[in-house]
Design brief:
heterodimer, A: 331 residues, alpha/beta, three-stranded parallel β-sheet, three-stranded antiparallel β-sheet, 17% strand, B: 615 residues, eleven-stranded mixed β-sheet, six-stranded antiparallel barrel, 40% helix, 25% strand, elongated
Chain lengths: 331, 615
């Protein structure tokens, strides 16, 4: 936003509600459908299948790596706040860890990550480690709810609450369908009137513990202990020897994550990073994003992988062309 | 600086714990028990048996090869409740020393021994390449495959150091010998086939016993237009290989072909072939006829009871067999009826009709008249026929004159018929062999067993002698023999000692002296134990594929000094298409996967799929 423009508190609130409302509409509101098995949607099934395929492939690869000196944990770092991963993990019945502990009032804590699971065989009591996914949602999750300085488990009930509050203000805020530029945004604000329902929406919305696409994003991540801690885990994992990071559907435009990744790449020559680009144009964009970082790449350990035209690397083709291929090679 | 430290910490794998003569032991750091490491986006193989390590003693970098490893479970760590899996295993490596780095270049041999506690490192890409860089400064590289133990690492050999040497390719059937052979020559031709000097100076001669290098489109190893292919056959009409008259008039060769006995038959052959008086007279029809007449009359003149009239008939029949087209059979019929040996008078008699007998000079006149009716159709018959005729004339000359015992020589003459027939099918006499092409392939697939033994020898000897005579610095000849046990075998019960000696001597001479004349041998065989050890031990470079038979392995072990213990133990377990390269061209013996040849240039030696044919 233009620094020279002075906006009143009310005007700022209108803009904030408009942005969060839009975010709610496009990202948050549909999540209950993901979990609800009674609602069948072609799109949902497609996406869910990709997630399931991805998890099953990784699980099999890790399971087949018979090495007692390496653990069988896979860390999934995601900036997505949706619940596709959780649902897919549940459906595929794979072991995972999303940082919550407890049944009645599950509480989130970083110490709950990195637990190994062992299983004994039925006949000889031989123990063997089973693969575990650590699901680290660095921008928070819709399964998170802040309550008295703690993050507790949310069953997505808040989304319903926000819905009613949002419906009440929906018509009173700026419509993104007609306005996309910031300057328009500011002129548009003047035509809207502020009232108390706006605050109601914000109060309901703030119960969500997610990083919002607003300017405070970076303050959130740094100030908020949990986001910060999760990024620290990312950083720590990347510092370990012989680590490989696959980057899917992420263009490294998020500068706080990019900096962590690049810093790790530059200090750890035993780290390998494989970035999958959607197409060759996307590859150029990603490479430019990487160049924006302050450091240069010293160890040649970042690989930008673009698909062979006319194919595009969407989730499905990456699964089939990369992870499935790896597994086929193992077999 | 910082990077050096990081690199050292990644590449350090342990330290020397004992130095016992040439055997070095290294204890591996517990953090380095995984199979691979990542470094700068590359996958680096961690230490394992067969890999190389670098031992640093002050400023000296000593390179060793891991020959064995064993592990001790660390009891202290195992029994602890709180432990990391990495810490439970202590690995110890047995190292044998190979060489050292001198000014960034790898050198074979050891000048200094490591000390206890010297640090050991993995080789980085550059050092690794330098250990496997077999190209001498003035040499040119040829890529033949990749390292088996290090995926993606290409192996190049120097063209000079490989092709100016005798090469041996050994391995069981189906282990990829022919493919390797095809690969190295395919690569060489790919690089040089268009060079005018190469075309003028280099000759390659491939003996193909099983027809693996010829097919319908004949593009195996190199495109058709660069090759001269002879598909020889003793059955149907095949190609004929050109042979010079000079080679043909080599008595010792014929002694071998006809399996002549040393005492009597060999001197006879020598006499027959080097009889230039005879040779001259065989050049025109008239002289032949007069020769026949004079021999016949001589036989009659002798009036030998032992020989009788039979000799006349036999003589003429044998002559008949040697001449291409004639009316001798009529003359024989007439003579058989009319010319008799009269036992009472101990002389020949010509019976014109019952009661009308002619003796002495009268008889001779009648015989001469009969011979005079002989007409030899004026076809210039070839040197082979001439040679055969020459032997026949010599034989009867010897017998009639009593120089030789008939019983001693007649088996030779009987054998001659069949041998000549075979040889005639596969060779032609051509004194101006003007072969422009570099590569000659001779397929012996359709040649009978006897000729398979004789032909390679005849051809190789001719080529060798030619090259020897030239004796210049520029020309080059490479004789390639696939399935070499067919002709280089040391013991064979079927053949005579004399033949064997001659055969081996010829090839041993090539292998011992060939280098001076620019003649080199490439032999491929599945039975190294069968091949004369003189030949095996004289080879300079070896491609060793899987060998299973103990005798073969022992033969390789005994004669190949380039092979270390570990490579040697690999021999029975090598997969198809993988071989050990050892010898002059390689500083260290390496296990390599032979690279692919484009399908059209592949030899046709595919293993058969039974299921495909049965369904």
């Amino acid at each position: 936003m233009n620094e020279n423009t002075t906006l009143t508190f009310e005007e700022k609130e209108i803009i904030r509600v408009s942005i969060l409302g839009k975010y709610y509409d496009t990202v948050i509101s549909k999540n209950p459908i993901i979990v609800d098995d009674t609602k069948v949607e072609a799109n949902k099934t497609l996406v869910m299948d990709n997630y399931k395929e991805f998890l099953v492939l990784l699980n099999t690869i890790v399971l087949k790596r018979k090495s007692s000196i390496l653990n069988k944990q896979v860390n999934l770092f995601t900036t997505n706040i949706d619940v596709f991963f959780e649902k897919a993990l549940e459906v595929t019945q794979l072991e995972y860890n999303d940082g919550f502990y407890g049944r009645f009032n599950p509480v989130f804590s970083l110490t709950n990550f990195k637990k190994s699971l062992f299983k004994k065989s039925l006949h000889y009591d031989n123990t063997s480690e089973i693969p575990v996914f650590n699901l680290l949602k660095v921008h928070g999750s819709l399964t998170w709810k802040s309550e008295k300085e703690k993050i507790v488990y949310s069953e997505l009930k808040e989304i319903e609450e926000i819905k009613s509050k949002w419906n009440a203000v929906k018509t009173k805020v700026i419509d993104f369908a007609t306005t996309d530029k910031l300057s328009h945004f500011i002129t548009e604000v003047a035509s809207k009137t502020h009232d108390t329902t706006f605050n109601d929406f914000l109060v309901a919305y703030d119960k969500l513990a997610v990083v919002n696409p607003t300017k405070e994003k970076f303050q959130d991540t740094i100030l908020n202990l949990h986001y910060y801690e999760l990024l620290r885990v990312l950083s720590n994992e990347l510092e370990k020897e012989n680590t490989i990071l696959f980057i899917l559907g992420f263009s490294l435009a998020d500068e706080h994550i990019r900096e962590i990744v690049l810093r790790a790449a530059n200090s750890n020559p035993t780290l390998a990073i494989k970035v999958f680009a959607y197409d060759s144009a996307a590859k150029t964009t990603i490479e430019e994003n990487v160049k924006k970082g302050n450091t240069t790449i010293r160890y040649n350990n970042i690989d930008f992988i673009e698909p062979v035209a006319p194919e595009n690397y969407d989730f499905k083709t990456i699964n089939a062309n990369i992870f499935k291929a790896v597994l086929d090679k193992i077999d | 600086m910082e990077e050096e430290i990081i690199k050292d910490s990644i590449f350090r794998i342990g330290s020397v714990t004992s130095v016992d003569g040439r055997a070095i032991r290294v204890s591996v750091d517990k953090a380095k028990n995984s199979s691979h490491l990542l470094y700068k986006g590359d996958l680096v193989k961690n230490v394992s048996v067969g890999s190389y390590i670098k031992i640093i003693k002050g400023f000296t970098k000593i390179i060793g090869k891991v020959e064995g490893e064993y592990t001790i479970e660390d009891k202290v760590y195992s029994n602890k409740e709180y432990s990391s899996d990495k810490e439970k295993i202590s690995r110890t490596l047995n190292i044998s020393l190979l060489g050292f780095f001198n000014k960034k270049e790898f050198e074979r041999g050891i000048k200094e021994m490591p000390l206890i506690d010297n640090e050991c490192y993995l080789l980085d890409r550059e050092e690794f390449n330098s250990v496997h860089d077999f190209i001498r400064k003035e040499d040119e590289p040829l890529t033949i495959g990749t390292l088996t133990l290090e995926k993606g690492q290409e192996i190049q050999v120097g063209i000079d150091s490989l092709f100016a040497s005798h090469i041996g390719i050994f391995g069981n059937t189906g282990s990829g010998k022919s493919y390797t052979l095809a690969k190295i020559y395919h690569e060489l031709f790919k690089k040089y086939k268009d060079q005018p000097n190469f075309q003028a100076n280099a000759k390659f001669f491939l003996l193909d016993f099983n027809g693996e290098y010829v097919n319908e489109n004949d593009n195996i190893i190199v495109e058709k237009e660069f090759k001269q292919i002879y598909k020889l056959s003793t059955k149907a009409n095949g190609d004929k290989f050109p042979v010079s008259t000079e080679t043909l008039y080599e008595p010792s060769f014929w002694a071998v072909v006809l399996e002549a006995t040393e005492k009597t038959q060999t001197p006879f052959i020598r006499r027959a072939i080097s009889n230039s008086w005879l040779t001259e007279r065989l050049n025109s029809n008239d002289t032949i006829i007069s020769l026949i007449k004079s021999k016949l009359l001589l036989a009659i003149d002798k009036n030998d009871k032992e020989l009788g009239s039979k000799i006349v008939i036999e003589f003429l029949s044998d002559i008949e067999n040697c001449l291409p087209a004639n009316n001798l059979s009529e003359i024989i019929d007439t003579l058989r009826e009319n010319l008799q040996y009269w036992n009472q008078g101990n002389e020949f008699v010509y019976i014109i009709e019952p009661g009308n007998w002619k003796f002495k000079d009268d008889m001779k006149q009648y015989v001469s008249a009969d011979i005079d009716t002989l007409e030899i159709t004026n076809i210039a018959f070839n040197s082979l026929d001439k040679l055969k005729l020459q032997i026949v004339f010599q034989y009867y000359d010897d017998i009639i004159k009593g120089h030789a015992n008939r019983e001693h020589l007649s088996p030779l003459i009987k054998r001659m018929e069949k041998r000549f027939e075979d040889i005639r099918k596969v060779i032609e006499i051509n004194d101006n062999i003007n072969n422009q092409k570099n590569f000659t392939i001779v397929s012996l697939k359709d040649v009978n067993i006897h000729m398979r033994k004789i032909l390679p020898l005849l051809l190789c000897k001719q080529l060798y002698d030619e090259q020897k005579e030239k004796n210049d610095e520029t020309t080059y000849l490479n004789i390639i023999v696939d399935e070499a046990h067919n002709i280089l075998s040391r013991d064979s019960d079927r053949e005579s000692e004399q033949w064997k000696d001659y055969r081996l001597e010829t090839f041993e001479e090539i292998i011992k002296e060939g280098r001076k004349f620019g003649v080199f041998l490439t032999i491929a065989s599945q039975r190294p134990s069968d091949i004369s050890s003189t030949i095996i031990s004289q080879l300079h470079n070896y491609f060793l594929h899987r060998l299973i038979n103990n005798n073969d392995i022992l033969a390789v072990e005994k004669t190949i000094s380039y092979l270390d213990k570990l490579s040697f133990e690999y021999l029975p377990i090598l997969p198809t298409g993988t071989c050990i390269l050892a010898g002059l061209t390689a500083q260290v013996p390496v296990v390599i996967d032979i690279g692919k040849i484009e399908e059209e240039h592949e030899p046709n030696n595919k293993t058969r799929s039974l299921i495909k044919n049965w369904k």
